[in-house]
Amino acid sequence: MDKKRFKIISIIIPFVFYIGMAIIDGTVWCVDSASYTSMDFSREPVYPLFLLGIRKFFELFDFAGTMYGQPSYLFCVVIIQSLLWVYTAARLGIYMYDYTLEQRYSRQRATIVGFMGLFSQMAVAILNRFVANRGSMYSECIMTEALAMPLFVLFSIRLFELFRNYSAMNMLAVFLLSVLISSIRKQMLITILIMGAVSLIIHLIVKRTRDPRRLLSIVIMGILAVISIGVIDRSYNYAVRGKFAEHVGNSKGTLCTVLYTAEAEDVHIYDKYEDSQEFPELGSLYTRIYDECVAKELTISYAPSQNFDSTWLEMTSHYAEGYDIIGFDIVIPYCQQYVSEKFPELSGPEFDIKENEVEAVLAKELLLKDIKGIFTGKSPEFLYVLVANVAKALVISVANNRPAILVKVSIFIYLFYLILFSVRLIMKKDEKSRELCLFALIVFMGILINSVVTGSMIFPQPRYMCYGMGLFYLTIGCGILYQ
C-alpha cells in the first residue's frame, strides 16, 4: 500500500473508532474526576487548567445544559481527548510505516508493521472497554490518564528519535513532552528516569556507543525538566491559591505503604518530635492512625500471608483494597484533626500545606526505618510488599493477574521478549538490528521503571500500568517481522 493511501486509512480508522465510542459512551465520570474539575490542591496543574479552559470557553458563548448526565463542556473535553488518541494511534502507525521503509523492507511489510502500530493502541482501548472490569476507554474519562497515556506514546517515539539523531529539535521535543506529561500526572516523572536509564546504558555501559558527553547532556536536561515541573506546579498554585508551593499529597502513597507494614512499637521513632514546635506530639498521632488501621484490619497482619508463598497475589489485593481507606478515611482525617488541634490559627492553603508536611514527616521516618531494615533483616514484611507489588505491576503491564495462569504467561512473554532481542543483538550486528534493540530497550525500560515506581510508591492497577502495553507487543511483532 502506498504511503498516501495508508496515511488516509490510518487517520480514518482511529477517528471512527475513538469518536464513535465517545458518542456512544459519552462522558465517563470517575471517582477522582471531581478533584480535577474543582482544581483541588492535591492535583497537578495541567489537567485542571485544561478543564477550566474548556469550561470558560463554553461560558463565554453561553453554552449550558447537560450531555450524558454531565455538564455539556465535559463532552467537549472527551472529544478533544479522543482526537489526541486518534492522532497518537495514527502517528504511531505512520511512523512505523515510514521507519520500516527506511530500513529497506518491502512496502507490504511496511504496511503490516504500520497497521500493527495503529492497532496496538486501539487494542488496549478495546480491552479496557469490552474486556476489563472498568468497561470504558480512558479517552472518555475525566481523568489525567486521558491525556498522559497518548502523550507517553508520543514521548517514546520522540525519545527513540533522539537516540538515533541528537538534534536540537529532538532534544527540545523530549524535554517539553517530559515536562508536559509530568505536569499532567506526577507518575510520569518516570519519563525523566527512562531517558536517563537508557542513556546510561547506551552512553556509558555499551562500549560501542559510549559517549559521556551525551550522557551528561541527558542528565542536565533531566535536571532542568525537574526544575521546570516544580516551577510550573508552584506558579500554578500561586496563581490559584496565592501560595508558591507544590501540590499537596505527594507523601500519602508512601505513607499508606509504610503504614501497611508498620508496628505499634514504631511510635518510638517519633520521640524526637515530642517537644517539637513544628510537629508536637507526633507519636500520639501515629498511634491513633496505626490503631485505626489495625481496628479496620488494614495492616499486613490481616493479609493471607506475611512472606512469599502461593498467596502473594492475595496479599497485594488486600493491600490494594485497603490503600484508599488508609489514605482517605484514616490518614487525611486524623492529620487534619491533628493540625486543627495543634495549629488552630491555620486555615485555607496554609492548613493544607501543614497537613501535607505532617504526612511527609510520618512517611519519611517510617520509610527510613524500613529501608535500613531491608539491609539489617528487620523489615521482611516491607520488602515482601515491595517485591510483590513490583512483580504484580510487571504482570499487569503486559497481561493481567486473573486468571492466575496469566501470571505464568506474562513470565513467558517477558522471557521471549528478552531472548528475542538479546539473540538478535548477538547474532545480527548490523545497524538495523541495533536500532530495533534500542527501541526494544526504551519500551522495556519504560515498563520496568513504571512498575518499580508504581509498585513501590502506590499500588499496581491497570490504569497505572498499561502505558506501554501496546508498544510492548508492537515491539515483539517488529522483532519477528524485521528478519
Automatic annotation (TrEMBL):
Q: Where are the transmembrane segments?
A: 12-34, 72-90, 110-130, 142-160, 166-182, 189-206, 212-232, 405-426, 438-458, 464-482
Q: Which UniProt keywords apply?
A: Membrane, Transmembrane, Transmembrane helix
What's the name of the protein?
Uncharacterized protein
What organism is this sequence from?
Butyrivibrio hungatei
